[in-house]
Amino acid sequence: MGGPRSFHFGEFVFLPETAELYKNGRKLPARAQELLGLEALVENAGRRVSREALTRRIWPETSVGKNNLNVMINRLRALLGDDSAGQRFIKTIGRSGYCFVPRVDAAPDTRSILSADEAAWTVYWRARQLWEARTPKALAESIRLFRRSIALDPSFSLGYAGLADALIMESLHAIRPPSETFLLARGAARRALARRKNLAEAITAEAWVRLCLDRDFSAAEEAFARALALKPGYPFAHNGWSLLMLALDRPAEAVKSMEKAWESDPLSPPLNALLGDTYYYNRQFQKAIEQERKVLEWDRRYVLGHSCMGRSLLQLGRRGDALRHLESACDYSGQSSVMLGLLAHAYARCNRRSAARSALQKLLRRAKAAYVPAYFVALTCLGLGDVEIGLAWLEKAIDERSHWVLFLNVDPVFDDFRSEKGFRRLLHKTFGFSAANAAK
């Protein structure tokens, strides 16, 4: 990868080749044994590392008692500000080993970011943690904090990249109109690239804009590939590549990419839920259900887990179960437009026409004062059999640059409409070369 490795987790940066550990840009005093143990753990983040493997890594040619490893783990936890009760960083797995809990970003040496103002660095990592939550409130606060990190250090390129990511996520979750948020994200990403032209995070943000706003699939593919060459384990780049593959009607490749994103952070609730979502688009409905069941075992209120579970159950004809999960997704999201739209469509598919029309009217009333994706009005109208009206709303969704239209080639909910001339025309408008796939 060229140069020493760099591992990023929370407010920490770890450079194993030079035996340096930084917290908020400040180097910490650490013993060699602690750093060897940390290296073994972060290399296997999210997976169990046995006590035997850790002992061999730290004392390869020395026979030591089991208490030596206990002492080392306790020292390492103290260094990270962890403890055996909270286990925010290092989780004990029974009596057999340990697991490093946080998401770890691995990349070639990015020592230049360590020069950022210490306060900016602290604010940045707090913003990243909020971004991972992906709720409207958390995203709004993450945007405020990313901007704060930039104000503290105007040269802090990761702050600009983080701001771009948060704006992109606002669009993906239908919090603000895509035409607004993607343009702002592009500006933030380009400010980051003006300071560090090879920053994988900023290149990834630019790729998302190319894909969703420009629908320039070749440029998006080139940018995602470049980002992954610089930072092979970066989850948001794999996530974007997966969406690109779905847009290009290559769902099996989308699954592979989403699995790589998941492997980089197997404890992330969003990545686990999105993996199930990608199985859905690959028509592996039972596998999607099994994946989302794991997510809901961790958090029974997790919105994405319920929504994907519901859509997969609906495809398998299990209408009652499907509606229960989609109703839960709607309730737990505070009746977000996305989840209300998915529920309205499901009501229509299940011949609950009165409930579907009631939810549709709620979306239309809400649209008078706030952004409501036209895509979900279209989906509900199509479910109700109002094909001409549904296709008109779908064209509006295409024009408003909703990322949801990138699923038109693969989402099974459109199977009944693929022979429609109007639907084929919309495919051509969205993808150009992909229209021929409509009749498959």
Rg measurement, Å: 23 Å
Helix-and-strand structural type: alpha+beta
Average of pLDDT = 88
Show unreliable segments: 109-115, 433-440
3D architecture notes:
The chain is of the alpha+beta class and 440 residues long. Among the domains are: 5-108, Winged helix-like DNA-binding domain superfamily/Winged helix DNA-binding domain (Arc Repressor Mutant, subunit A, Orthogonal Bundle); 116-230, Serine Threonine Protein Phosphatase 5, Tetratricopeptide repeat (Alpha Horseshoe). The protein contains 20 helices and eight strands. The strands form two sheets. Strands 4-3-2-1-8 form a five-stranded antiparallel sheet, covered by helices on one side. Strands 5-7-6 form a three-stranded antiparallel sheet. A hairpin with a 3-residue loop joins strand 6 (90-93) and strand 7 (97-100). Residues 109-115 and 433-440 have low confidence and may be disordered.
Structural key phrases:
3-stranded antiparallel beta sheet; Arc Repressor Mutant, subunit A; 20 helices; disordered C terminus; 5-stranded antiparallel beta sheet; single chain; 440 residues; alpha+beta; Serine Threonine Protein Phosphatase 5, Tetratricopeptide repeat; 8 strands; 62% helix
